[in-house]
Structures are given as C-alpha cells and as structure tokens.
Amino acid sequence: MKKRFAAASLAAMMVLSMTACGGGNTATTAAPAETKAEETTAAEAKEESKEEAKESEATAEKAPEDYSGTVVVYSPHDADPLNAGVNLFMEKYPNVKVEVVAAGTGELCNRIAAESANPIADVLWGGGADSLAAFKDYFAPYVCANDDVIAEEYKDPDDKWIGESPLPMVLFYNKDLIEKDGMTIPETWEDLTKPEWKGKIAYCLPSKSGSAYTQLCTMILGHGGKEDGWDFIKKLYDNLDGKIVDSSGKCHKMVADGEFYVGLTLEKAAVQYKDDPSVGFVYPKDGTSAVPDGVALVKGCPNEENAKLFIDFVTSKECQTEQSENWGRRPVRSDMDVADGLAKLSDLVLVDYDFDWAANEKESIIEHFNDIMVD
CA quadruple 299, 149, 76, 8: dihedral positive or negative? Predict the structure, then answer.
C-alpha cells in the first residue's frame, strides 16, 4: 500500500507497526514432555521480563549527571539551531560529550552506509524522512520515550526513524533585487520557469541535500506526476542556467546576500530572516510538501545508550520548545502549537506526496536528474 503525505493532516503518509519496539505409547509420554517444555519456556520468559523490568527501573532512576561518555551526531541542520540543541543537551547531561559532524543529508547518509561495518556515528539528527527511509537498512529500530505524543504518520513503520519537525518547502526571495528590477514576486514553482528568472534561482543538487531532493519530488508530483513531471524539471533546470549550488544552506544565504533573486528552501531556514525587511518567502500556491525531518539510531553504533538518550532529548518538550521559539521549527509533538507567524498546515496547498516512491526510488530519481544536467 502506498503511504502518502496528504493535504492538511498528512494522515495517509504511513501506517505505524509498533513493537516496545506415531503410536499409542508415544502419545502417552509426549504430553508431559511438552508441558514441561512449556513450563520451562514460560519460566524463562517470566525471568527475562523481570530482568527487563529491573533494567528499565534502573534507567528510569538514573540522574542526568550519571550519564557519561560520548555521542557522535551526524546532522545536516543549520549551524545555529544545531548548536543550540546540542548545547541544551550538554547542559542537561554535563558528563556526556557530543561530537558533531555537519554536512548535507545525502552526504551523511552515504557516509553512514560506507561506515556500516564499523560505525562512527551514533545518531543522524535531521534530514527529510524520505531520505532517511531510503537508507533505513543502516538504522536500528528504536521507540523513543516521547512516542505517545508523536502522531503515527511521523514514524517509520519499523521504528527505524522518528519525525522531529514537519518541514514545508518555500520560495525565499530578495525583495530589494526584485523591486529594483521591477519584477513580480514568484508565487508558484511554475513562475520560476519564466524567462525573467533565468540564472536568478538558487537550487541545490538533490544528490547532496535531502531538502533539495524533497523539493525535486514535490515539483515532480505537483506538475504532472512521476512521468510527466520530469518535463517541468527540465524547464526549471534550463532556467537555472548552469548555476546549481552544492549545499542547501547556501540557497537561503546567497539570496539574503543578494547573489540570487530567489531560492528553493525550507520554511525553517526562511523564518530565520523574519526581522530582515529585504527578504521574504511564500508557500508555493501550486502545491508544497511538509515531509518531516527525522532522527535515527545508527545500527551497531558504539554509544547506543547515549544515542537513545539524545533521540529522547530532541523529541522532548524541552528541546522542541527551544527549537520552535528560537529557530522557527515546527514541533512534531501533539501537545505543542506552532510558533507565531507560521501558517497552519491546513491552510497550505499540499501535493499528494508519495512517500514510498520518494524513498524507494531515490537512486533512480537522482540519476534521472543527473541525466538532465548532462544532456
């Protein structure tokens, strides 16, 4: 069954499957043996249950300062919210050292795959869930401590990743440049294929960036679908005029710096400029998407306890509140509201985002885009 991000509620994205986590004489003697085996199995299961309960109780009683060691976090998040989240974690767990490796989602996922025989990372914090799903073989299942306040549509069916912030895609523009040239602010993806925008658009390589990949899938699905949508991508790529950046973080920064007129970026990046009158952003009227960023436990990671602790933290109300209030990130928790100034998802035009297709066909979709680049 296909799982999709549907309009407003995104409720049909996926379905969660949750786990916590011969003769008469022979017949006469077999019954007691089977009973004994069953009793032994039941006794073992009961003993295992007791041991698990003891471990759970011990963990629950553990104070923040009792945790020690290291946790290695790979993250594509922008530096400021990333550092803020990490610092908040270290304030709460002062004896746990956090080592951060920052890069694009695609680069980090490929690195985790390459290191799978001897993992270095413990946690991947960030990156679109469709990108994480494409690499789920390299993640281990984990049901976080905040599971009951995270809707099922924001979780992997096999618990290989957990959504931590829904992310609408937006068009970020430089007001000063547009007004200077007497142009009209673009309101749709389609607008960007008009001749006047040639060479003025900042877009990142989808092979490098998870958000750029999600934007690519969003545009395909919103402009003709999996086959015909590529005609739109060809027109857009022609209008990039060979100017394509290698980091999604550069898209909004280069627009703000006046190097590009408009950039394809995430809402969370655009809202950081809310006090800058020279820039602004719009939600594409011809359909955007709100695929969540995810957090995942790396399979076979060297610091599993601290990795789970970090995942619990970034989905906690404490961290989600800080990220929402200070960095404009939408909380995934059902017991929190979105920050002021952000549109409700129910007010946006959302494409029928085919999550399965985006996750399972990522390699061929990126290859198709690369073919367009060299044609």
Answer: positive
Residue 75 and residue 70: Cα distance in Å, rounded? 16
Residues with Cβ within 8 Å of 300's Cβ and at least 6 positions away in sequence, in order, are 116, 119, 140
| Strand pairing report for 123-128 and 69-75 | parallel
Please report the pLDDT score of residue 22 as a whole number: 37
Look up residue 374 and give its two tokens. 């060299």
One-letter identity of residue 67: Y
Question: Residue 341: CA atoms inside 13 Å, Cβ hemisphere, count?
Answer: 17
Q: Which amino acid is at 275?
A: D
Question: In sequence order, what DSSP letters do the residues of 70-96 get, joined into one string?
Answer: EEEEEE-S-HHHHHHHHHHHHHHSTTE
pLDDT at 33: 37
CA pair distance 106, 113, nearest whole angstrom: 11
Q: What pLDDT, on the 0 to 100 scale, is given for residue 71?
A: 98
- Determine the Cα–Cα distance for residues 233 and 374; give it in Å rounded to an integer: 14
- Compute the distance between CA of residue 126 and CA of residue 266 in angstroms, rounded to an integer: 13
Angle (nearest 5°) at CA 324 between 204 and 210:
20
**What is the pLDDT, as a whole number, of residue 39?**
43
For every residue of 203-226, DSSP letters joined together read -B-TTT-HHHHHHHHHHHHHTTHH
Task: Kindly report, residue by residue over 310-365, the tens digit of the pLDDT.
Answer: 999 999 999 999 999 999 899 999 999 888 778 888 899 999 999 889 989 999 99
pLDDT tens column, 184-202:
999 999 999 999 999 999 9
Give the model's pLDDT for residue 26. Answer: 32
User: Is there a contact between 294 and 153 (Cβ–Cβ < 8 Å)?
Assistant: no
Distance (Å, whole) CA 192 – CA 55 = 56
Which regions of the chain are under pLDDT 70?
Answer: 1-60
For the chain, domains (ranges, CATH) are 4-20+63-167+292-342 (3.40.190.10), 169-288+361-374 (3.40.190.10)
